Amino acid sequence: MKHETASLLELRARQSSQQWFYRYDKDQNEDLLQSMRYYIEAAEVHSSIDAGNNTRRACAQASLVSLQIRMPDTKWLDLSETNARRILVEQSRFQEALIVAEAYGLNQPSEWALVLWEQMLNPELTEQFVAEFVAVLPLQPSMLVELARFYRSEMQARGDQSQFSVWLTGGGLPADWAKYLGRSFRCLLKRTRDFRLKLHLATTATGFDDVIDACNRELDKVPENAGPLILRKGHGGAYLPLM
């Protein structure tokens, strides 16, 4: 019975949001508020029957409706998969990007790689975005490797700064594009604590010899408390390390 109740609430939520699109005055957001309430009620019903995925989906839809209320000039609801990806990549603020990703099932490393890459020409924006990102989500190795490949391809493809970027949108790039990209990628390298992964990223991206040298030094280090290995003969003739 509760499953049917939750489904009915979600249906009413969708109907309410659709009614808002037919309004001439988009500032009248009563329909959206009602839609958000329905989604929240549906999430509560789902949680009462331990339907975790459905609860999460209903909460994500409620957050998306709240985004539509706050930013009525942009269409956030009922997007196609293509348009959802496009609007996700366009987000310069992590919180809005996360809402879109959760609502449309795009919370995947491959999707976030494109979102992060879109920020790379603005190092300050990248640093803020990444700081908020790592507070919620992990920097997946597959995503970082993909960004390293993007970086290498961009640097190799651009011999003339007057050319258009093969990866970035928006037309021409500033004169210091290489410096900006480098700063942004270093921000990602600093957030990578695994030295082997960091070495792989720096090697793949190319142009970060100082990072490669630093990683090699760390990986070549011998623990300071390491001493000579002394063995003793144990029972059965096997040699065991003497602690």
From TrEMBL:
Sections of the chain in a coiled coil: none
Pfam family, one: Spatacsin_C
Top-rank taxon: Eukaryota
Spatacsin C-terminal domain residues: 1-152
A cellular-component GO term for this protein: cytoplasm
Protein name: Spatacsin C-terminal domain-containing protein
